[in-house]
Amino acid sequence: xxxxxxxxxxxxxxxxxxxxxxxxxxxxxxxxxxxxxxxxxxxxxxxxxxxxxxxxxxxxxxxxxxxxxxxxxxxxxxxxxxxxxxxxxxxxxxxxxxxxxxxxx
Length: 105
Prior knowledge:
This protein is mainly beta. The protein has one helix and seven strands. It has a single domain (7-103), classed as SH3 type barrels (Roll). A hairpin with an 8-residue loop joins strand 4 (52-56) and strand 5. The radius of gyration is 13 Å and the shape is globular. The termini are far apart.
């Protein structure tokens, strides 16, 4: 189960953060030196900032959500519970741009 960039997974983010959808942003690497996946959490709380990208209505999400690029994190692959779907390429490009903005890259 190797998660790929642009996929949205249901992930266990720990006791306080609960199980929630996340967007995989780490590059696909079949043999990484560490078994970590870099992700961005999805949230329904849109604050209208440049640190958020609306994903619009997606058939596999029950509510309209945004990707929170300030919430970047890493988790071990067993915490990815199941794949929900794939973000459209144009929306993933907007997420990458917001991530570059947030990290000043």
